[in-house]
Every structure is written in structure tokens, then in C-alpha cells.
Predict the structure.
Amino acid sequence: MEHDTLSRLLPDDVGSRDAEGLDATWRMLDAIDAPAPDSDRMRARLDALLDAVEHAAPAAPRWFRRGGGDRVRVDATQGFAAAAVLLIGIAIGRFVVPDTTRPADSVADISAMRHEMRELREMVSLSLMQQQSASDRLKGVTWTGQLDRPSAEVISALLDALMHDPNVNVRLATIDALERFTSREDVRRAAIDAVDRQMSPLVQIALIDFLVKANERQSAPMLRRLAQNPQVHTAVRSRAAWGLQQLG
Amino acid sequence: MNEMIRIFSAALLCALPASGVVAQQAVQPTTDRVTVPFSDPERAGTLRVNLLDGTVSIKGSNRRDVLLVANSQQAREALRRRQPAEPPPVGMRRLTQPGGFGVEERDNEMSVSSGMNREVNLEIEVPVRTKLRVSLVNGEITVDSVDSEVEINTVDGGITLINVGGSVVAHAVDGNITATIARVAPQAPMAFTSLNGDIDVTLPAAVKANLRLRSDQGDVFTDFDVQATASASANQTQQRNGRNLRIDVNRSIYGTVNGGGPDFELRTFDGNIYVRKGK
């Protein structure tokens, strides 16, 4: 390329020294001889490759060799390629779909993944339940409902929220979340203890319902005390009396 | 003499909560208007209000600090009476505030509280995104045009929310809750509960939610197309000791709106529930 052409292509802000440097480089590149394509050698290499392909698939059936000559080579190549794709497909299939000959490993992998997933969900629920925002804590409490086998840590976090969460709505949601665990004695006992400590009549009523639903006879003395205490909200007292009646 | 003692004790009670803000803020003790900035106005701040008696009205506006106006007649009278009577001694400054409330700000959290036995009527303007945690024993709370997390508790008094966005967790023991929610925060659960009040909530027409509606002694009304997922209002039957026992406990109505979403709980013991479709 001519010098003036190069400088025309350069942006305006390139200094003259830079332009000269570029020009020199360009000339040096020009001086190097480009290797001429050696057509004979390329042809020989291609032929060798085709021969190799032909020899690698000698068992191609006769009907496959239609057209003869060069055409045979092309067909054989295509067939070979198809076989290769098939093999790759099978390999991928084997890799992705669990190998039935080694079920233990894959099942272990999946169960490990499930386990990790469950731990992650638990962790998220537990950490949400520690947040400052009541909306976040509500979210954490509700999410525990999606854990299929919650650990003891989750249950104790729910019981802790039932006792100590400052927000009435979070405590109410906790009672709903604990309904899955009425078969556990510690949960029923905590619910009985919680009724006395609650300041909120709405939560007290929800706890009485919870105990009646769990058919917890142990709660009868507490309900009797509640029903007879004139300092307790009237709605709570009548609910406690109703609960006693239900538990018989 | 009696009057003097009363004022003095009121001033003393106010001194503690007020001292916090005076240390950080040049509060004018002669007015009942205070402007307090958040330490980092770029982040959404939190406003906590804890009062025993009075009314609280909070409005979102496009300001960066918080304006508090104590507009109670009582507070103004107290101010008028006190101003000429007690000029600060030479070399001292007054720490109590005439409005009867104290403000403290730390790490973008602002706390407003009142002294004992003081009725305080507060009008507060906040940045729209300010998170609110309001707790009032006896009085009405109104929140208008904020877009954040709203947490409100009252014992004796109603809660009114107008044009509120984000998420709401509200509880009134003896009071109605009326809320118009303009925008809901995605995946954020909400709860509106009361013992003796009605709950009247207007939600955006396109809201996706799982509704949990329950009124023990009242009714539930809605103009939403609620797809019932499980209604436990039917009596549960349990076999016990060989005889059938009817347990009618759970009167909750569970349903989804627009395909379902986060849980919205509306519960009252002795009131009605209205879930209205907004625009």
C-alpha cells in the first residue's frame, strides 16, 4: 500500500511520528515473501485423507456404492459422519441419563443435591425469620410450609417466633405454620405455655383453636383457668370455655 | 403551684427522649415543627413511632428529610404557658421539646416517642420510600402515599392507609383497618388483622395473591374472582373413642386471585372482611 493511502486511513489524532512508525512496519510486512500455495502437496494430502476414510470403512455395502468413483468416497464420508454423530448422541445420552448399571452413585448424587437444596431453603427461611421487617419474617414463616422435612432447628425457630416475635401477625402465621407438627409433644406443650404469655387476644384464640384441633387434653387445666379469669378478654374466655367443651 | 409541678414533671419526662436528637440536631425548642434528616438520605430510611395517646398522620412526599409537626391544641397551650414562665437559666439550653415528643436518628433509623401521660398529635412528612414501624396504644393512624414496608399496631384506634404501595402488616385490637393498596411489592406477604374491627382492603385488580380470609363472627365479602383452594369452613369430623365428634375449628377461606402469589392474611374475630378490587 502506498504511504499516502495509509496516512489517509489513519484517524486525525494520530501524530506524524506514529504515522511514520506504522508506515515502516507496513513496509517491513510487505518485504516478507508470502509463501506460494503448494498445490501439489495439498492435493496429495487430500488424497491421503480420502484414502484413509475409504480404508476405514471398507465394509460399506455394495448398494451404498452407487454411482462409483468419487461419488463413493463422498457417500462413505457422509455415512461415517452419521455414525460418528450417532455415537456422540449415545455418549451424551449415557452421560445425561443416569446409568442403570451404576444406580447407587446417581441416586446418591440426586439425594445429595436434594439435601443441599433443602438445607438452602431452610437456611433462607431461618434467616428471613431473623429479619427486622415483619413482612420478611412472615415470608420466612410461610416458607417453612414448603419444606418437606424441616429440621428441629426450623421447629424451634417457629416456637421461638411464637413466644417472642414482637408482631402479632407474625405470631398468628407461626401458629398456622406449626399446625403440621401437632403430632410432636414439644410443639403442643409450647402452645399450651404460649397461651398464658400472650398479650394479644387474637393470638390466644388462635392457640386455643390449635390445641382443640390437636385434641390436646393436657390443655384442659389451662383452658379452665383462662375461662374463669375475669381479667382475660371476654372473647378469649368464651373461646376457652368452648375449647373445654370440645375436648370433653 | 400545682400547675408548675405538672409542667415540670412533663418537661422531665420529655427530657430523656429529646436529649438524643438535641445532641445531633439543632432543634429549635421554641417551635413545634422539627425537621430531622436521615444520616444517609440515598438509602431508604426507617421511621419508628411509638406513642401512647394521640393521633399519627404520615404522608409521603418527595422530600429527603422528615418533617414532624406536633399540632395538638394541648401541646400549643403547654408551649404558650411555658415560654414566658421558664426562660432557660443563663448558660443553659432547653432540652425538652414543646410538642411533647422526642426524635432520635441513628444509622438511618429515626425513632419518635412521647413521654408518659401525654397526648401527642403528630403530622409527619417522610420521603416516599421510608419504611414505617408505627405503634400507638390509643388513637388513630393514617398513612398516605408511601411506597415501602408499612408495619402498624394499635390497641384502641383505627388504621387508615391511603394509596400505599409495597407491603403492609397491620394489626388493630379494637379498631377498623381500611387500606387502599395501590401497588404491591412482588413476593411480599401482607397481613391485616383485628379482634373487634372490620377489615376493608382494596387491592389492585391485577394483584396475584393467595388470600387467607377469616372472620369468626362476621362475614367475608369480595368482588374479586377468588378461586377457592381449600375451605375448611366445612366441619371436620374426627373419630374419637368410637364416637363421631364434630370439630368446627377452622373457618378460614383459602383462595387464589389471578393465579396466586404471596399470602395475604385478613383476619378478624368480631367484624366483617371486605376485599375490594381497585383500579
Observations:
- Chain A touches chain B at residues 132-135, 138-139, 142, 167-170, 172-173, 176, 200-202, 205, 209, 212-213, 215, 233, 235, 246, 248 (CB under 8 Å).
- Residues 60-69 of chain A have pLDDT under 50 and may be disordered.
- The first helix of chain A runs from residue 3 to 9.
- Residues 74 and 162 of chain A are 77 Å apart (CA to CA).
